[in-house]
Design brief:
Largest sheet: none
Number of helices: 11
Shape: elongated
Order of helices and strands: HHHHHHHHHHH
Radius of gyration: 20 Å
Strand content: under 5%
Helix content: over 70%
Distance between the termini: 48 Å
């Protein structure tokens, strides 16, 4: 199913490694390229979160007005979203694409395990006996902290988000932490870089003049 994508990722990693000669740096560069390609979705996500924040007073009024009728409350919320061109599920789209890339990247790293077993990066393979093709406890912990912090910031930005959207955003950190102890550290390096870059993107986009004015109004 992912055969063509796996082969494409393998070739992309080999190509980038031809310039930097370290697969740890290669994975970081690969991640940044993916994030740049997904920038339109990330931008839409951040602007949607800001819009949800702006609509919070109106949403509170709807909840109060229809507190005894959940069906009318939900319909009024949907009408409010439609009138203001807001998609409450927009925050989940970049994460879904990330997961779609994660699976073939995992297979690609496994196919490069012979090379990656000889690759050290930061403490991996230097302070520890592991490699980018093997699990590493420290990078799981670093990922956990980064993802919890980034998800918390996202939640604060999307204060008006619905419970379903909020729950999905918390599921991914828990999912990655749960399986992280069995994943190659190369995968977690990709995820950590993606998490940090996403946080930076959200900060930059949310502080663009147009977005700041929208929040202040």
């Amino acid at each position: 199913m992912f055969g063509w994508l796996i082969n494409g990722i393998v070739e992309a990693l080999k190509f980038l490694n031809g310039f930097v000669h370290n697969f740890g740096v290669t994975i970081i560069l690969f991640t940044l390229i993916i994030k740049l390609l997904l920038y339109p979705l990330t931008s839409k996500q951040t602007k949607s979160m800001k819009a949800m924040q702006d609509l919070q007073p109106e949403m509170d009024k709807i909840k109060k007005k229809h507190k005894d009728d959940k069906e009318k409350q939900q319909q009024a919320m949907m009408d409010l979203y439609k009138e203001n061109n807001v998609n409450p599920a927009a925050g989940c789209l970049p994460m879904i694409f990330q997961l779609a890339i994660l699976i073939p990247l995992y297979r690609a790293i496994l196919s490069l395990s012979d090379i990656l077993n000889e690759t050290s990066f930061l403490w991996i393979g230097t302070l520890t006996n592991g490699s980018l093709a093997e699990p590493d406890v420290a990078i799981v912990i670093v990922n956990a902290l980064a993802m919890i912090a980034q998800t918390y910031v996202t939640q604060k930005m999307q204060s008006g988000g619905n419970k379903q959207s909020n729950m999905i955003m918390w599921i991914m950190p828990v999912f990655i932490i749960f399986i992280g102890f069995q994943l190659p550290s190369g995968i977690l390096l990709y995820w950590f870089t993606s998490t940090v870059f996403t946080a930076i993107q959200q900060y930059v986009i949310s502080n663009e003049p147009a977005n700041k004015e929208a929040v202040e109004q």
